[in-house]
Structure to design on (41 residues):
């Protein structure tokens, strides 16, 4: 995951994140493709 936690964007319904500005990165796929690949639910 990357992105700083921002209290004003807090969302407890998000999986693995605390605020909307954060994103979850699929590390294995990112390494394979040599670019950032986001995790899709």
């Amino acid at each position: 995951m990357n992105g700083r936690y921002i209290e004003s964007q807090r969302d407890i319904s998000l999986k693995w994140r605390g605020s909307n500005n954060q994103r979850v990165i699929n590390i294995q796929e990112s390494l394979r493709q040599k670019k950032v690949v986001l995790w899709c639910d």
Q: What stands out?
A: The longest helix spans residues 27-33. The mean pLDDT is 92. The chain is about 15% helix and 0% strand. The chain has one domain: 1-41.
